[in-house]
Amino acid sequence: MNHTAHISHDAVLRARVALLGSQALTVRQEVAAYRVLARVSPLAYLPLLARALCAYSRQEFADQPGTALALRAEAVGAARRMYSLEAGRLQLLVVVLRAYGLQLGVMGRQEELDAVQEEIAALDTGHRTELGPLEYEITLLDGPRPR
User: 134-139 — which CB contacts under 8 Å span 24+ positions?
Assistant: First the structure.
């Protein structure tokens, strides 16, 4: 039995149709579609899910820090899974960890923030690579960052 055996094919079809449709989706609808599709095509959809979750946390839950944090934690999980499948996606993981760390900082959760910053430092080995468009888009969600 493969990993897609228990996924509703109707749900997958609905998610694909929603993303391909001519109507603009809300970020909530994007998240729902990417959650389904990441289960059947993780390499294609996990990065998009991570971006959509970060956007959703910022756009819809800026006034609900606990919910925003949970969404960003889910984004970190998606980015970790993507990195485990494709080591070349390190920048995605680092960018999403930074977004998660920003939310921890907003909430005053210093111990957890310190752990995230240590993880980023361990991952960021100094091999600077230019951010891809998806990673760059995630960095823009919380505004410009000091260099």
Answer: 134/47, 134/48, 134/51, 134/92, 135/91, 135/92, 135/95, 137/51, 138/50, 138/51, 138/54, 138/92, 138/95, 138/96, 138/99, 139/95, 139/98, 139/99
